[in-house]
């Protein structure tokens, strides 16, 4: 909560300074605070707590009374003596005594169900945090591609200027000049496509964060960076078995099922109703005491007891299945992260630098007239494709790491 409050204060400070920028942590905090779907899910916790109140309520006392031998059809007989000597009045108070600890069992069952709901809401928060991170990384990738496309366009325009000078000097033909000018269209198209991709990513991110939480012109800050994966699979799986809220909800469902069994057994106990009455008959007053309790000859709630026991078995199997699913999710995400990391390392091992050097050499040689236009354009194309593929691989690896953390049960 302290971290969340600090993030909100920083965001408000940024808004006051008219710098509409967001970090990943701020985006996640805002999404957790503003998502309508998540707010709707959180009301389930409040609903369960209200059911706890209902479960803990005691039975209301019963007030009963009657009056007999009223001279309704002989109005002239209404008198004090008639009321005192002829008519009969009864007034009684009754109460239902619950046996078997029903109230305590109901309350415990409601509390256990509230705990299940709390874990389910935590799991919804975990999934939302991953969706925000995934979309945030998409915005970072689009921003990086836009910067790269803009730099490429500016650099190629300089090449076009040099080509124009060489054409005027008679070093190249008009056909080559037209070809290189037409190639500018590709770079301008890249800039437009990258700008559109960035806007689409920001709009999708704003939907997750909340439209009213950030201004329309907000931007993401932070760059895509390579961070090596140092954790071992067994360590991540062990953490996931402790932190995953969906697994905790499945395990808590087993506890809640046991509470339902105890409640069903308590409901098999027959409740006692006791009544204390006061009577006034023919001028005499008296009191009486009565009670009633059903005899459990046929209905001993045996069907519900059997059902809840089967429900406990089902919950136990579901918890085991959830545990195996967690282990599978972690292993799949881990292998995906390792595969994505290996692709990033391929680019970092030399291919990225080689593509850049090839382009620089070809550009320098073309300016000196040592290589043809086709060689220059081929080097430009290879460098562009390599850089874009590297950025995409880096984004895929960043998403794979976030997914691994999500399967581990970590929201950051």
Structure report:
It contains ten helices and six strands; from the N terminus they run αβααβαβααβααββαα. The strands form two sheets. A four-stranded antiparallel β-sheet has the order 2-3-5-6. It has a two-stranded parallel ribbon with strand order 1-4. α8 (245-267) packs antiparallel against α9. It has a single domain (22-59, 101-268, 301-408), classed as Outer membrane efflux proteins (OEP) (Up-down Bundle). It starts with a helix and ends with a helix. By secondary structure, it is of the alpha+beta class.
What can be said about the biggest beta sheet? 4 strands, antiparallel
Name the helicity range.
over 70%
CATH topology: Outer membrane efflux proteins (OEP)
pLDDT < 50 runs, ≥5 residues: 1-6, 8-19
Distance between the termini: 14 Å
Shape: elongated
CATH architecture: Up-down Bundle
Strand order of the largest sheet: 2-3-5-6
């Amino acid at each position: 909560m302290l971290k969340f409050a600090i993030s909100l204060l920083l965001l408000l400070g940024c808004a006051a300074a008219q710098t509409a920028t967001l970090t990943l942590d701020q985006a996640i905090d805002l999404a957790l605070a503003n998502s309508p779907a998540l707010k709707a899910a959180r009301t389930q916790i409040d609903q369960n707590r209200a059911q706890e109140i209902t479960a803990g309520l005691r039975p209301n006392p019963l007030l009963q009374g009657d009056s007999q031998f009223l001279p309704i059809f002989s109005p002239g007989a209404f008198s004090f003596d008639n009321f005192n000597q002829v008519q009969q009045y009864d007034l009684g108070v009754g109460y239902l005594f619950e046996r078997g600890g029903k109230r305590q069992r109901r309350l415990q069952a409601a509390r256990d169900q509230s705990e299940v709901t709390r874990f389910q809401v935590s799991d919804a928060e975990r999934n939302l945090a991953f969706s925000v991170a995934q979309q945030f990384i998409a915005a970072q990738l689009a921003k990086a591609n836009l910067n790269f496309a803009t730099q490429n366009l500016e650099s190629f325009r300089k090449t076009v200027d040099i080509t124009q000078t060489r054409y005027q000097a008679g070093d190249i033909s008009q056909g080559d000049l037209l070809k290189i000018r037409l190639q500018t269209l590709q770079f301008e198209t890249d800039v437009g496509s990258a700008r559109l991709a960035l806007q689409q990513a920001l709009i999708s991110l704003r939907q997750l964060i909340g439209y009213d939480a950030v201004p329309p012109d907000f931007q993401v800050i932070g760059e895509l960076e390579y961070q090596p994966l140092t954790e071992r699979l067994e360590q991540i799986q062990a953490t996931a078995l402790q932190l995953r809220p969906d697994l905790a909800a499945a395990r808590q469902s087993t506890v809640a099922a046991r509470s339902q069994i105890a409640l069903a057994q308590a409901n098999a106990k027959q409740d006692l109703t006791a009544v204390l009455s006061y009577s006034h008959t023919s001028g005499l007053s008296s009191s009486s005491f009565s009670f009633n309790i059903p005899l459990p000859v046929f209905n001993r709630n045996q069907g519900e007891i059997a059902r809840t026991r089967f429900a406990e078995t089902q919950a136990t199997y579901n918890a085991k299945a959830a545990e195996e699913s967690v282990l599978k999710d972690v292993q799949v995400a881990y292998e995906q992260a390792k595969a994505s990391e290996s692709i990033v390392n391929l680019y970092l091992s030399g291919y990225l630098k080689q593509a850049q050097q090839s382009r620089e050499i070809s550009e320098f040689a073309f300016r000196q007239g040592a290589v043809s236009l086709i060689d220059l354009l081929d080097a430009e194309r290879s460098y562009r494709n390599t850089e874009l593929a590297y950025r995409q691989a880096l984004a895929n690896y960043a998403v794979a790491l976030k997914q691994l953390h999500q399967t581990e049960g970590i929201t950051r």
